[in-house]
User: Fold this.
Amino acid sequence: MDQRLAALRRWLAGPLGGPAFSIAPASADASFRRYFRVTRADARSFIAMDAPPEHEDSAAFVRVAQLLRAAGVNAPAVHAQDLGQGFLLLTDLGTVTYLDALNDDNADRLMRDAIAALVKWQLATRAGMLPPYDEALLRRELALFPDWYVGRHLGREFSAAQRASWDGLCAALVASALAQPQVYVHRDYMPRNLMRCEPNPGVLDFQDAVVGPLTYDIASLTRDAFVSWDEARVLDWSARYWEDARHARLPVAADFAEFWRAQEWMGLQRHLKVLGIFARLTCRDGKQKYLADTPRFLGYARAAAARYGALAPLARLLDELHA
Assistant:
């Protein structure tokens, strides 16, 4: 038994009213956080989060959980907290993620629920409540691609011409993102972080939420890290979101084609960032499983680059890097 787990057990005895409970691993993610399912003698279960405070900001998790729940979104309630130790006791939203549950028969229904929850979240946007998804953050994320995917994973360096091409692409993607209406952004709104439950969906892994581009979360939902959908479905779900958002008076573009272009460019920024993150998880953290999904993101990036003349330099850059 590791020391943090022992400390977590001792702490849980307080909010759970004594030592009569069992604890078992529930999940882990790409960060330093761990989750445990805690079951009391009366069979009621909770989720305990272990987030070492030197690595993770649990206060952000608590703050965003409150914002989501106030918006009417099914995020876990925080039943007890010890921010000094990095321990939280949370509502248990079950064991079935969207990633586990989605199939051809239920995908449209589950995605409708996810879109409805996203609209609620965005409608709740209030100034000053979350950090901004500003130019500095957008550029730091894009820098993960040359630093980790190109430099560490591929073992390559940009030539002067490639660097100029990359800098121009980054400027275009950042300008597109900053030109969008700014709303609450979950920042990882994807099937792995959505739970099939009642009310549906349960929403997890939201501690990095910001105020940023309106298309970011719908791009994350439809161009997922671990499951891909055909273009017709992605278009249909994006159009459904656009229609629902317009009906709710969110500031989406009046023309769907304009909205779709902004969504695709926003998605491309995310795809390039994720390629860098997955390379970092592999090279720095030894988490090899993420590398298997890099072809999916290269495919997303290539498809976007092929559809827009302004993004054509990216297609050439990817060809050169993988030659």
In short: The first strand starts at residue 21 and ends at 28.
